[in-house]
Amino acid sequence: MEKIALFIIKLLKHPIILLGGDYRQVEAILRTKLSMDFRRSPSMFHASGKSDKTFVFQLFILLIFGLFIALGFTSIQNLMLGLTIGFAIMMVMLGSSVITEFSSVLFDHRDNQILLVRPISNRSLLLSRLLHIQVYIGFMAVALGAIPSIMIAYKHGVIAFIVYWIAVGLCAWITLLLTSFFYILLSKVVSGERFKDIISYFQIFMAVMIFGGYQLMPRLMENDAIKNTTMDIHWWTYLIPPAWVAGFVDVFTTRTFSLEIIVLAILALVVSVGGAIFLVRNMSGSFENVLSEGAAEKVAVEKKVESREKHRFKIYDLFCVSETEKSGWKFSMAITKRDRKFKQAVYPSIGMIIVLAVVMVKPDFSSFAATMQKLSENKNFFFFLFCCFFGTTALTQLPYTDTPEGAWIFRALPIEKHGHILTGAIKAMLFKFLMPILILLFIATMSIWGLEKLQGLIIGSMMIILINLYTIIFMKMALPFTQVRDMQQKSANMARMFLLMFLMGITIGLVYLSLMMNVWISVAVSVVLFLAIINAFSQIRNKGYILS
Amino acid sequence: MENVMISIRGLEKSYGGNQVLKGIDLDIHPGQIIGYIGPNGAGKSTTVKILCGIITEYVGEINVLGMDLRKQGIDIKRKIGYVPENGALYDLLTPNEYLSFIGTLYGIPEEKLNTRINLLLSFFGMEKNADQRMDTFSKGMKQKILIIAGILNDPEIIFLDEPLSGLDANSVILVKEMLTRLAAEGKTIFFCSHLMDVVEKISDRIILINDGKVIADGTFEELKTEKAETLEKLFANLTGNQESEFKSDVFNKAFEEN
C-alpha cells in the first residue's frame, strides 16, 4: 500500500513543484511518515514488521458500503441525481473521516522539533500533510467507489467507468481541500487552545450530524418520488460540491452537453486545481502560525492547592470493593474529565442517542400530544434500550491515551492486583456515562408506558452491563490509559462494536420474553443477572486485563 | 562590533498573559561556546526555540548570520543545527533512515549524505546500530542520533538544549571535545545545560538568565567572585537563595506519621 502511494506521489511531481513545494522534501516527508504509519505496532513485542491489516479491514467495510451507493444508482433513474447523492455520501464519509481521524495529522505539532527547525517552506510542509491525509482518504474513496464503478461500467460503458474514477479522485481531493480550508480559516479567527476546543466541539457536532444523515438517507432512497424524478438545477445547485463532480461524470456519460451540467463539470475542475493553488500558496503562512502556536508549551499557572479535606463518604465507596479499585475509579474519572481526545470519541455517541431516539419515535412535529399518543400505543419500547448501547462507548475508549509512557506506574508500583484498577475504571465509566442515560430512560419509559415495564428495563439494563463486561473478558482490555491511539485501535473497536450489536439483539429478545413472564420469574432472572455481573467483575479483576 | 553571528534586541515572549522573556539583548560572535544557563522555567528553551524557528511569534528583532529571522527564516535554517532537549525524533525509524530523511530535507546530495552519516555514526560508535529501530534505543543512544542530526548539515551555528542528558561518561567527553573542536573551526555553539561543572569548563562565555532577563554575562573568570568560586555557587547566589535552601522542617513533616 505504501508503495502504491509513493508511486502516485511520483506522478504528482510537477503539480507539487507548480504549487511551490520542494518535491524532494515533500517526497521524503511522505515516505518517512507512511513507513512509520505501517510500522507502528500495538505493543513492544511486535517490534519487527507489521501488517496493515486493520486499515484493510476498514477498507473492506467501506467496500460493502459502496454496495449501498451502487444500489442507490439502480433505484434512481436519473443518472445525475443518483451520482449527486452517491458523491454526497462519499464526501460526507470522507469528510467526517478527515475531521475525526486525520485533522490531527494536519495540525500535528508533535514533530515540530524535528521538522520546523529544518529549511522546509510552509508550502512544502502543508503539501506534505495534505498528501499524507490524501493517501488515506484516497484509498477509502477507492474502496467506496469500487462497486459503483462496476455498476456504471455495466450501465454506461468504459468511458463512463474511467471518468467515474477520475471523479472519485476529484471528490476525495475536493473534500480534503474544503475541510482543510475551513480548518485553516478557523485557525485565523481563533487561536491556540480555543481553536482546539472549537475543533473538538465541531467534530462532535459533525459526528452527530453524520449519524443522523445515515439514518435519514435510506428513508430518502425509498421515497418513490425520488426514484423517477430528474434533477432540476437551481442557482444553489452550483454551491453543492457533490453536484460538481456528478456533473463532471454526467457530461462524459450522457453527453447531453447542457450548459448547466457543463458549468458544474468545469466547477469540479476549477475548484480542485484553483482550490489547491489558493490553499497552498496563500494560506500556508497562517498554517505555520497554528503549528508554532501549538508548540507553545503552557506555562504552569500557579494555583493554590486546596487543603485536603477529611475523608467523607464518596460514591465510589458504594461500588468499589478495594482501595486499588477506588484508585482506578478516581484515576479514570480525573482523566476522562480532561482528555480532549477521549471526549471527542465519547461525546458524539451521546449526541447519537438523541438522534436515534428521535428517529425511533418518528415524531409528528405538528402535534406533541399525537406523538405521545402514538408512542404509548406502540409496544416496542424496549428498542429504546438500543440507546444505552452508545452509553458504553466510554468503555471502548478507556485503554487509550496520548501519553502511554505514563503506564510504567502500573508496573513499577507495588500493586498486587492490576485487575482492580481496570474494574474500578470500568465501574467509573458505567457510572459516569451509562447511569445517566439509564435514569433518563427509566423516567421516560415509565411515564409513557407505565410502571409495569420496569421489570423489562431492569433486566435489559443489567444485560447491557453484562454483555459489555463479557466482551471485555473475551477480548481482554489493557489497563486504563496505557495504549497509544492509532490505526490499530479503530479496527479493534469496530470488531467490538459488531459483537456488541449482535449481543444487543439477543438482549432485546430477552427483555421481550421477560415481559411475558411472571413478575417473580423476572425477579429471579434479575437476581441471577446481578450475580452474573458480580462474577464478571471478579473475572475481569483476575484475568480479563492485559498488562502491557 | 562586526562579525556578529546572532544579534538579539529586545526579545520578549509571553504565553497567554504570562511573560516568559522580558527583554533580552545579546550579541554572539563566531567561534565561541556559549553556555546559556538559568533556573527551571527561566526561558532558556523558549529562547532557543525562537532562534531555531519553532516559535514564530515574538516581540523584538533577531538577526542570525546577518539575516532577519522573520524574513529569511528558511535561509537561516539551512545554516543552523538544533539538538532538542526532549529527545524528539521518529523512533520507529532506524538511524540510517532517520538521518538520511533529515539530510534530504537539507537537500544534501545523496552520496555525500551517506558518507557523512556513516562517518558520524562511527564517530559516536553507533555503526552497529545503524539499521536497528530506535524505539529500542536507550536515552543516550537516541541522544547521539539527535546530536548527529543537529550537525548533519555542517551548520555555522549549533543550538543544543541539554545535549549531555542521558549520555554516559565516555560520550560526554566525546561531545565536549566535539564542541570544542567545532568552535575552534569557527562555528558558534549555543548550549543550554544544568550541568554547572560542564558549563564552567567548556564555555567561552556564560549567559545566566533568570525570570526572563539576563542577569549575568561574561567568561567564568569575569563572573566568579570571592564568595562564589564555582559556577554552582554563583548560580545559587544570583538566582535566589530561598529555593536552594534546604527546608528541613517541611521535608521532615512530609514523612511524619499522622
Structure in words:
The complex is a heterodimer of chains A (548) and B (258). With 548 residues, chain A is mainly alpha-helical. Chain A is built from 24 helices and 4 strands. In chain A, the strands form 2 sheets. Chain A has a two-stranded parallel sheet. The longest helix of chain A is centred in the first third of the chain and has 35 residues, at 122-156. Chain A is globular. Mean pLDDT of chain A is 78; it is low at 42-51 and 294-305. Chain B has helices at residues 44-52, 73-78, 95-105, 110-123, 139-151, 169-184, 196-202, 220-223, 231-238, 241-244, 248-254; strands spanning 6-15, 18-28, 33-37, 59-64, 67-68, 80-83, 157-161, 188-192, 205-210, 213-218. In chain B, the strands form 2 sheets. A 6-stranded mixed sheet of chain B has the order 6-7-8-3-9-10, sandwiched between helices. In chain B, strands 2-1-4-5 form a 4-stranded antiparallel sheet. In chain B, helix 6 (169-184) links the parallel strand 7 and strand 8 (188-192). Chain B is globular. The model of chain B has no long low-confidence stretch (mean pLDDT 87). Chain A binds chain B through residues 22, 24-25, 28-29, 31-32, 35-36, 39-40, 44, 47, 110-121, 192, 288-289, 292-293, 295-301, and chain B through 15-16, 18, 20, 41, 49, 52-57, 74-75, 77-78, 80, 82, 84, 86, 88-90, 92-93, 97, 101-102, 104-107, 133, 135-136.
Write the SSE topology.
The complex is a heterodimer of chains A (548) and B (258).
Chain A: H1 2-11, H2 13-18, H3 23-39, H4 53-75, H5 79-106, H6 112-115, H7 122-156, H8 158-189, H9 192-222, H10 224-228, H11 241-254, H12 259-282, H13 284-295, H14 315-319, H15 323-338, H16 340-361, H17 368-377, H18 385-389, H19 393-397, E1 400-401, H20 408-412, H21 418-449, H22 454-475, E2 477-478, E3 483-484, H23 487-516, H24 519-543, E4 545-546
Parallel strand pairs in A: 1-3, 2-4
Helix pairs in contact in A: 1-3, 3-7, 4-5, 4-7, 4-23, 5-7, 5-8, 5-9, 5-11, 7-8, 7-13, 8-11, 8-12, 9-16, 11-12, 15-21, 21-22, 21-24, 22-23, 22-24
Chain B: E1 6-15, E2 18-28, E3 33-37, H1 44-52, E4 59-64, E5 67-68, H2 73-78, E6 80-83, H3 95-105, H4 110-123, H5 139-151, E7 157-161, H6 169-184, E8 188-192, H7 196-202, E9 205-210, E10 213-218, H8 220-223, H9 231-238, H10 241-244, H11 248-254
Parallel strand pairs in B: 3-8, 3-9, 6-7, 7-8
Antiparallel strand pairs in B: 1-2, 1-4, 4-5, 9-10
